[in-house]
Amino acid sequence: MRLKRVIPFPGQVLVRVGQEVDPHTLIAETTLQPEEPIMIAVTEAYGIPPTSLGDLLQIKEGDMVEVGQPLAALLADGNVYEMRSPGKGRIEQVSYLLGTISLRLEGDPNDNVRVVDAAEQLGEPAILASQFIQVRTGDFVRLGQIIATEPEREAVAFAPMQGVVTSVNGHLVTIERPFVRTQVKAFLTGRVVEVTPEWGAEIESEMEPLSGLYGLGGESSGELRLLVSAPQEVAAATAVSAQDSGKVLVAGALASADFLRACKKHNIAGVIAGGVHSMDLVQLTGAEIAPGMETELTLGLTLLLTEGMGEIPMEQSFFAALQSVAGKVVSMNGHTQIRAGVVRPVVYLPAGAHMPPTSTASDNTPIELGNRVRIIREPWFGVTGIVGAFTGPTVLPSGITTLTYQVATDSGEILEVARNNVERQGLV
Amino acid sequence: MKRYLLVDVGSTTTKAIYATISEEGAKFLALADAPTTVEAPAEDVQIGLEHALSRIQVQLDALNQQPSSGDQPALVLPHNINAVDGFLLTSSAGGGLQMLVIGLVRGMTGESAERAALGAGGVILDVLAQDDQRLPFERVRRIRELHPDMILLAGGVEGGAVLDVASLAELLFHANPESRFSKLHKLPLIYAGNSDLHPYLEQHAMGFDLQLVPNLRPTLDREELGPTRRVIQEQFMEHVMAHAPGYGALRERASAAILPTPQAVTRSVHLLSEYRHANILAVDIGGATTDIFSIVNQDMQRSVSANLGMSYSATNVLKEAGVAQLLRWLPPRISERELRDWLHNKMLRPTTLPHSEDALLVEQVLAREALRLGLAQHFRLTLQLKGNKPEGDWRYSSDDFFGDRQRFSHRDIDIIIGSGGVISHAPQATQAAEILIDAFLPVGWTELLLDRHFSLPHIGTLAQVDPEGALALLLQESLTPLGGLLVPKGGLFTGSQKVTIEPDEGEAHTYVAHPKTLTCIPLDPKRKYRVTIPAAWNMDFGAGLWRGFVKEGVQGSAGLYIDLRGRPLPWGKDQQQNRINSSSWRVHLAPAAGKGGN
Predict the structure, then answer these.
(1) Do B348 and A93 touch (CB under 8 A)?
(2) How far is A133 from chain B (nearest CA, A)?
(3) H/E run at residue B268
(4) Residues near B178 by Cβ (< 8 Å), separated by ≥ 6?
(5) In sequence order, which residues have a C-beta less than 8 Å from that of residue B195 and are 6 or more positions away?
(6) Per residue in A225-260, pLDDT tens?
(7) Which of A57, A285, B251, B464 fits a disulfide with B256 by CB distance 3.0 to 4.6 angstroms?
(8) The pLDDT value given to residue A243
(9) Which of A101, A256, A309 has the most B C-beta neighbours within 10 Å, making it the best mutation to test the interface with B?
(10) What does the pLDDT average to over B554-564?
(11) Which among A246, A256, A241 has a CA at the least distance from the CA of A220?
């Protein structure tokens, strides 16, 4: 399979075509900052109509500019009036309608704190200057925003960069901006087949994807360790130790709240399980979960569920596939979107894994007599068996009349189950 | 006799109805469903349609073989639709008509544009406005993320703002969005704002198929949505339908325009409202969304709650309502842990059915809360125009000027129509009726109807060519009476209330409804009843305070409900006690046997 790995803003690509990569290999990075770009009102400052912007520009969209580099220049009365860049960064947009330039700043890890001396800028004694400061600790300030004013002499102090005011100590205002280095890693083991300069690369990999049903968290990878020997078993929280740090763990039918807490404590990269109690997820993430609407809730690790909510044995073929690559490095992504282009969580297994013959998520083949099925709704969620008979309209205990199957379960019971409540199993 | 083939190509199911209209009555002779085939691998809606028509054919063949079938129904082969007098369609396949709406001020032109798009049957992907708390680059990113079928841009009253609207247009041009189905054709951009901007748009909107329509908010106190809605519908036919897989050919075969499904439903509700001279609230609760239509004093409004539904949106209902609001309806034996797991699993496996009684109860409680929230959203979306006051009315304060004023309230509703699987397929009619009552909490006299076959879209599209036939089908086949609901408008509700029901044939019976109960008096669905309530102290059942109440022609499969629980419902602070109380509110009286009553 091939996978494109790119950064959201242009930067440097750190690999070359043909290079072998593992999940942690850095592909590209940028120091352009993800926050709002700075909007520079060029024509407003010159006092001319926005439509004249084109005649003044010294730069174009996509250019990288340095601090103080001229962005626009106006010739008037024999003088050249230049508008200089307030920071180092990339010209993201030029609006000829509004007469503005938007500049995305480049971050500098060594220049993320500025201390403004309001007394010096206002020309006031230090002891008096503090009364003119207009910002408080915790305020967000933009580049050029007025942070102190002395009304009588109309003196002002400006913010020298965009950020958060972290302290106001007498006449000194400290502004900090977290430096963000945006990076993208290879995520899969493979080889670089194409490089897109400034943006990233395409990876070719022999890893194979296996979709789960629901997940949380972003990308992660690590050595796969199975804590259970059968899909219906449940791993105990005590089974997780510091030696598992950075690994992907298979927990069996349920990842309990205690188990997930232990994983968080020991920096586990990812957890794969049949189910989890929805209420535990709410307690652990501290928020009500409405999947499909938000994907940013994190547990501090990547979670992939193969079945749903509750204690539900993992599908046998999925479990077998994981068993076949125990001890090897896998990659996983918990991102799930239920609506508007369904996205399922996925685990990528290395070449040689015993992949299930079909994926239950995309299997639309009609069920036939003798097929092996799994029940996918309570009261028998996760129970497997063989379809023994098709039955006509039947009244369920809920009062709903529907077509049913008679399912002979592995434990020898015969169950009458709504046809909508079973799915065909990959293994017959 | 007239024969019609009516089809709704839904997002998951294509529903076909073969209907006949004659002097003897209007009938659905055959109804059939098949999965919609808009997605790969089929990518041609005609395949799903032909599956549905084949099933119609099988039913018609069976009818033809019955000696007593009387008038022979015409044979409708999938390839011979000329055998019918009309072949009419609605469509919401592939997610319906997905629109991006842009207005200048969110609460003014933004809302007006949203109402125009919703009324034309659109699914709103997002509403962007200058005051939507988003930064310009966030708006650009959002526009690029969405792949709408159409964009509606509005802003500025006539002679009003120009530059601000132009800057929104510029953002749109900068984002250069792609349409959903085809990257080759230009995306329709409908501009319904200040006409001073027309020359600018004509010059700059080269990448779009620009349609200039009259301003939908020409002045602050006037909203003219009609022209915009018409153009949206034309564009839906010309662009969206023409590029959706299989629709090109289908359009040629159809007897009239293919309507977006919600617009067809609107037409059906209109038909009934005009016929009954009544204010109507119609709801359709689906897996992902809840549609609410209201016609009150001939003012039609529609809202779509995109994140309230029975499966895909189940956990979002839980999130928005809060777990306590759901638990209060459930008996204490169902734990919060079970409730959460069940709802979450319903979202992950949306097509599964509740097996146990408790599982069904959970789904019906979910429906109550989804509809309650949906109605609140409907009220919010259909607020009166902001930024104006009635001419010459000096009483309006600034709160009235910019504040929220509802167009109607629970008291104004005469008829509620319920639709959607959880209501239409409820095992018992009383369950469907009680979902509607608990969710909407009507006051006064309200009639409850059920759209059992989800046929409102079909009736609406037929109304394009045969409004009389459509009305006959609506009254005789489409809508099933569930019953009536009486809720006193005021008072202390401390006394019991006598109710006498008298069938058109047979003896009258008197029942007693007690305070703090929702009492259901069963009715024989084949009969019509006269309902009489004697005058009671401090009670107003619709005829005025301390007056009696009489209603003729009451019928329904669920029964007559007397709701003496009060408004709002008497929820307490003790959650556990609420769960016990709500289970004891419902009183289902036994049918009267012989003389007398309970």
Answers:
(1) no
(2) 27
(3) helix B261-276
(4) B147, B187
(5) B158, B212, B214, B215
(6) 999 999 999 999 999 999 999 999 999 999 999 999
(7) B464
(8) 94
(9) A309
(10) 94
(11) A246
B437, exposed or middle or buried, with CB in 10 Å at 0-12, 13-18, 19+?
buried
* Segments of B114-164 assigned E as strands: 122-128, 150-153
Q: Report chain A's C-alpha Rg in angstroms.
A: 30
Over 70: is that where the pLDDT of B318 sits? Answer: yes
Residue pointed to by tokens 């913010």: A159
Helix/strand/coil for A20: strand
Closest CA to A330 of A348, A345, A353: A348
Q: Which long-range contacts (CB under 8 A, 24 or more apart) does A44-49 make?
A: A44/A99, A44/A100, A45/A83, A46/A72, A46/A74, A46/A81, A46/A83, A48/A74, A48/A99, A49/A99
Looking at every residue in chain B, the average pLDDT score rounds to: 86
Please give the C-alpha separations between residue B344 and each of A281, A426, B316, B319, B341, in angstroms, as whole numbers: 11, 24, 10, 11, 5
Q: Taking the alpha carbons of B174, B180, B184, B190 in that order, is the dihedral positive or negative?
A: negative
Q: Which residues of B touch A213 (CB under 8 A)?
A: 348
Low-confidence ranges of chain A (pLDDT < 70): 290-297, 339-342, 358-365, 426-428
Phi, psi of B588, deg, nearest 5: -105, 105
Q: B474: closest CA among B453, B448, B499, B497? A: B453
- pLDDT given for residue A340 in this prediction: 53
Query: Helix %, strand %, coil % for chain A, to 5?
Result: 15, 40, 45
Q: Which residues in B362-443 belong to E strands, given as ranges?
A: 415-419
Q: How far apart are CA B279 and CA B275, in angstroms?
A: 11
What's the ipTM? 0.78
Taking an 8 Å cut-off on Cβ atoms, the answer to whether A377 and B353 are in contact is: yes
Find the range with the poorest average confidence among A264-278, B195-209, B223-237, B561-575.
Answer: B223-237
Tell if the CB–CB gap between B427 and A310 is shorter than 8 Å.
Answer: no
Q: Which residues does residue A81 pair with via DSSP β-bridges, in sequence order?
A: A74
Cβ–Cβ gap A400/B353 under 8 Å: yes
* Residue A191, beta-bridge partner list: A20, A204
Q: Name the 3-class secondary structure at B22.
A: strand
CB contact under 8 A, B174 and A36: no
Question: Dihedral sign, CA of A190, A193, A196, A197?
Answer: positive
Q: Is the dihedral of CA A244, A249, A254, A256 positive or negative?
A: positive
pLDDT band at B354 (very low <50, low <70, confident <90, very high): very high
Chain A residues within an 8 Å CB radius of B315: 278, 289-291
Cis preceding-peptide flag for B227 (omega within 30 of 0): no
Query: Which candidate from B341, B349, B356 shows the least CB-CB separation from A398?
Result: B356
Q: Which of B288, B347, B355 sits opposite A291 (nearest CB)?
A: B347
d(CA B283, CA B304): 10
Would the CB atoms of B428 and A399 count as touching at under 8 Å?
yes
State the pLDDT at residue A428.
36
Distance separating alpha carbons of residues A262 and B45, to the nearest angstrom? 51
Report which of A103, A112, A46 is spatially closest to residue A69, judged by C-alpha positions. Answer: A103
Residue of chain A whose alpha carbon sits nearest to that of B340:
A278
Q: Supply A427's token pair.
A: 């293994």
Residues of B in contact with A418 (CB under 8 A): 352-353, 355
Do B352 and A376 lie within an 8 Å CB cutoff?
A: yes
Residue B204, CA distances (Å) to B140, B191, B340 in order: 17, 13, 52
In this structure, are residues B18 and B54 in contact, taking their beta carbons and an 8 Å threshold? no
Tokens of A223: 């050595």
Confidence of residue B41 (pLDDT cuts 50, 70, 90): low
**The residue type at A261:** R
